[in-house]
Write a structure and sequence with these properties.
Helices cover 39% and strands 18% of the residues. The protein is built from 16 helices and ten strands.
Length: 364
């Protein structure tokens, strides 16, 4: 999304609201750790539009806790976070899922979450646990990377780009489409990846080179991937003419899963030297009406049951060490060994200024 993610929003069915049967009132009270007052039977999960989970897995949560899950989708990740900031203290739900490391500082600085150390969080590597106060819990990770149309490059006997440097070479002129980082999570991740690669003083010169090399910018992942990119199923139908696009390392398995007929080999590849690691978090909302149900839901989100459901629902990687990837990912996905990363504190300090500078460089 969000591995997010945008790919899941466009290519997987939306879960909507699950009307699952709850257990009796006594069971609900026991599950919530309270016996002196009734507890709401519904826990509301606020998320970006890319959230998805199988009905069977959410039914398992209901069977374990007595709570049903109501999913409230609230736009893309940035829009969803902003809505929660505007309603701080009187949130739309109990748990928010989908704030990533590019937006984490904005959410934390605005106090939309309250601390909660999830049960089982010790199964998540420390590298993902970016908030020492446990206001958020890591749920999934993914890599924002340039994807390429294999057929385009094979037909022309041209090697696809591998690194950021490659994208600025004359051989790839007028081939790349990216998303506006002010409006798009993948676009922001790619911008941060270039800043991590070239440093505070070098990323602007790099974007000048990309602009001179004919980079195209659109507002959203949906437009870039499903309209402009020649390698996706949607892009083929739309007659997209850009064989390079900023998307996710998990996009090739998606193309296999939803291909008609399903291909034996993914039609798209990943330029593994252009990646930025994205981690998504969930947190208990400040002012939640059902905090006990919210805590139970966060525990469940890092359970092996939910973690192993995620890859084929949202096309992201689990963060729990004991969760296995499905064959679709191991066969058609790629492992990004050295993605670019950046501390949330630096993102907080630089993000808005960098976006402004990027706009002046690329959109003027």
């Amino acid at each position: 999304m969000s591995i997010k993610k945008a790919a899941a929003a466009a290519l997987a069915a939306a879960i909507g609201v699950t009307g699952l049967a709850a257990c009796g009132t006594d069971d609900v009270r026991e599950a919530a750790g309270k016996t002196d007052r009734p507890v709401p039977k519904t826990v509301t999960l606020v998320s970006h539009d890319s959230f998805n989970a199988s009905k069977e897995v959410l039914a398992a949560f209901t069977a374990q806790t007595g709570f049903t899950v109501k999913v409230l989708k609230s736009g893309d990740a940035g829009e969803a976070v902003n809505k929660e900031i505007l309603t701080k203290g009187s949130p739309q739900g109990d748990v928010f899922f989908g704030v990533d490391n590019t937006l984490l500082s904005r959410a934390l600085d605005n106090g939309i979450f309250v601390p909660y150390e999830a049960k089982g969080v010790d199964r998540v590597p420390a590298a993902y646990r970016l908030d020492k106060e446990n206001r958020v819990t890591p749920i999934d990770s993914g890599d924002i990377c340039v994807n390429y149309d294999k057929k385009y490059f094979a037909d022309r006997k041209l090697a696809p780009p591998v690194t950021f440097d490659d994208l600025a070479k004359p051989a790839y002129k007028d081939l790349l489409v990216v998303e506006n980082p002010e409006r798009s999570s993948p676009g922001l991740g790619f911008l941060l990846g270039t800043a991590a690669q070239y440093g505070d003083d070098g990323w602007q010169d790099y974007w000048k080179k990309l602009r001179a090399n004919g980079v195209k910018t659109v507002d959203s992942w949906e437009l870039a991937y499903n309209q402009e990119f020649s390698g996706s199923a949607g892009g083929k139908q739309a007659k997209g003419d850009r064989p390079l696009v900023v998307s996710y390392a998990s996009s090739p398995p998606v193309e296999v899963l939803y291909g008609e007929p399903q291909p034996k080999v993914a039609p798209t590849g990943v330029s593994t030297g252009t990646c930025f690691r994205q981690t998504e978090f969930a947190g208990l909302l400040n002012g939640a009406k059902n905090p006990e149900g919210g805590k139970a839901l966060i525990d469940f989100l890092i359970s092996r049951t939910f973690q192993e459901d995620m890859p084929l629902q949202m096309f992201v990687n689990p963060v729990a060490k004991d969760a296995a990837l499905p064959e679709l990912f191991t066969k058609h996905g790629v492992v990004v060994d050295k993605p670019q990363t950046m501390a949330p504190e630096k993102i907080a300090e630089k993000r808005d200024a960098w976006i402004q500078q990027w706009s002046s460089l690329v959109l003027k």
